[in-house]
Amino acid sequence: MEIVTNSAKFNEPLYLESGRILKPYEIKYETYGTLNEDRSNVIVITHALSGSHHAAGYYEGDSKPGYWDDLIGDGKAIDTTKYFVIASNNIGSCFGSTGPMSLMENKNEPYRFKFPVLTISDIVKAQKRLLESLGIKHVKAIIGGSMGGMQALCYSIEYPDFADIVIPLATTAYTRPWAISFNKVVVEAIRNDPAFKDGYYRSDDIKASGLAGLAIGRIAGHISYLSPHSMEKKFGRKYVDQDGLYELFGRFEVERYMEYNGYKFPHNFDPLSYLYIVKTVNIFDAARGSDKLEDALKKIKCKLHLLSFSGDMLFFPEEMKEIFDVMQEIGNGDNVTYEMIDSDYGHDAFLVEVDKFENKIVDMLEGNYGK
Looking at 146, 224, 230, 273, which residue is catalytic? Predict the structure, then answer.
């Protein structure tokens, strides 16, 4: 599978939901497969909070592939011998698209807190402009999980004629207090870390030394991505061999795991980007611009396939079931399906347990799902 990585710069203003304007801005994106002659084989992949445009395959020298490599590739569920797959890095992120640490126009200094708060709708609007610049005015499918699922749902409502099929996984129609509370731990940990310097840190310093506040916040976030069952299965009561049981800071294996994942994260992810993205997730509401969710979901014309995971403790299955139920109640039931995947892994099952739903994705893309 050939990976092509590009960046597109836009000089026309992007008018944001907040009333602010972003200009100019850049979007980093990656493509896999070949665009067919009538441009009918396009699949758009939208990423989660800490994801990027690198959805599949390996970069030279990498030990790990893109985050959905089990799903995307030659002969896989999203088959790149059949489909032309596009994955872009969200604006506001820190992997090549314009974000809070990007330089402002005509100034040799980053936006920092002058960067505008973005909504999911803003991110999708920017993505759609990218696709149009590539001559793509309609796509076969849009697929995304978690925050990517929010984007997929947003496409189905705000651009109802743009995609034939939309597949949101492990997401919600609006962010509830439970998820906002986990995010609050991250926000406060970052803001109260002296090394954050009230947002006026040097990026090179963070990459070199990390940021304890972001690491601690990421630990809290990581807990929400798992489940009690998956933690019990993976770690149980195992204690680190080299640590003494009666040492005050001796660790269980689960603690070492959380430390490792938490403290390596700030070396690769910008703290201000994290704060801005968390805000975007917190304020997401698919009914924004409508009086209520029913009014928003009435606009959907595509085939909307909803997949939740039984062990998801961040966006609980009933949150996706609500979308399905409302679609049924308003008479739009022919355009929606819902299935809960049996999983004890937790929220990250949509990334980790691809084998449990990959055949369903194939059937959805081929129009055979539910037959």
Answer: 146
